[in-house]
Amino acid sequence: MVEEPNFEYEYDLAYQKSFAARLSFKIMTIAAAVFLVAVLLFFYFTEDSMSLPMTHQIVKYGTVVFFVGLASLFVSCTIAIFRMVKPLKQFADSAVSIAKGNLETPLPEINSQDELWELRKAFEFMQTSLKQYVEDLESTTASKQRLLSELAIAHDIQMGMIPTVFPERDDLDLFASMTPAKEVGGDLYDFIVEGDELFFIIGDVAGKGVPASLYMAVTRTLFRNLASNYQSPANIMREMNHAIASANDSFVFVTAFIGVLDLKTHHLIYCNAAHNAPAIYTAHGDCHLLEVDTNLPIGVQDHYNYEDQQVPFPEDTSLLLYTDGLTEAMYIAGDGSRKLFGENRMLHDLEKTKTASAIEIVDYLKQHVSVFADGTEQGDDLTLMFLRHGTSQKRVSNAPRRIIMKNEMVEVGRMRGFFFSVCREHGIDEETAKTLNLAIEEWVANVINYAYPKGTRGHVELTAEISDGVLTLVTKDHGIPFDPTAHEEVDVEAELEDRPIGGLGIHLVKTIMDTMAYRRTSDGYNVLTLTKKI
User: Fold this and answer.
1) Does pTM surpass 0.85?
2) Chain-wide mean pLDDT for the chain?
3) At residue 117, what are phi and psi to the nearest 5 degrees?
4) Strands 254-262 and 309-312: what pairing?
């Protein structure tokens, strides 16, 4: 290992070892020698030559000696400087070779104790440092690759712990999803069906990453072990709290909501531990947050007294459970301002998707969060669980499907996949589906391109519903008001040069679809409704 060079030295030694000083000394030496020769020649020639006046002789020989001396000085200095700077070219070549990755490039040998010698020491130190850096980087990269591989395995293990197969019952529609913010997360959900009773839990471990995922696994295991033995949600919560709090040296806590739904008596018993209040959609059409006691999170205080709460849960009642990754999903604007997804937006989405299936509602909420965030990196895991009591298969199959898109053309491809899946679900043949997709794709592309000013973020929502043999497509955006039904009809028989620009897309949509209706809502939305008898 080469020691780091020290470039500080005394002033008197610096002058003696200085590259510039050596060059100046050589030039001055050469100049003095030339001057001495000139003087000697002058006296030599002026002593023997008497044919010309003394003044002419001095001028003549002085001029000759001056130019000869100047030429000698030039040649001597050029040779001396070339020899002295030659190592710099070698250093430059070595630097290029090192920059290309050849860290074993030999350096020029410098015998003089000057700046070139110091430069060589610096290059040698740089070579050694780069070698060490590359070795450390390779080691770090290998360690990181192992860590990423282990995290990927941990992710697969964690995702394998949560249920992905949901009960198929006429009296229950249940679906859940967990999206970690990192490779592994601290959110959890689980459920157990025993007879006509549904035990379910959703929770959020404080913190992120591997430590949170370990506590997530512990919490989920405790729930599954306790649910069958302790029928009351409060009892389950108390036992889980005791197990975690009694050995909680890391001071980790878990927020959780546990419920037991009796599908036969239509009754819900629940207990909350500082978790977000679920949203309930009653059979009477009322959508609001469920009233819950706050209580302490699990793991904070041993022997904490959790109490049960209960509400009637008749058929056609729905419950949305979620973690704060939903309501606290964030959008950060270019000016640094921040906006949260919030509970009101969540309740609004739940109301307008009230007849959709559980999987469609969960998927729609995840889409809306993605569009809302608009690329802003989220710091919280997102977990959703939706359950509806007494959902018939007929109602679910006829429920409207929704997709929400950003105002970016790349979203058209995603919309195409969504629309064809709707057509396949309802048995629409491929050729008809392609024709219908042409119409809706044309309109959605127009909205994406022209509804919002350039550089403005926005979204387009598409709802597809088939009822009594009629396909209804509804698009909704909050862009610039535009009524396509009031647009002047295009004369397709006219010559191209005589036609006004635009209008062909609207004409195509009108030609394919049976009806087109537009309205501007009081809250600033453009709503276009297209229908087609299938």
Assistant:
1) no
2) 80
3) -65, -40
4) unpaired
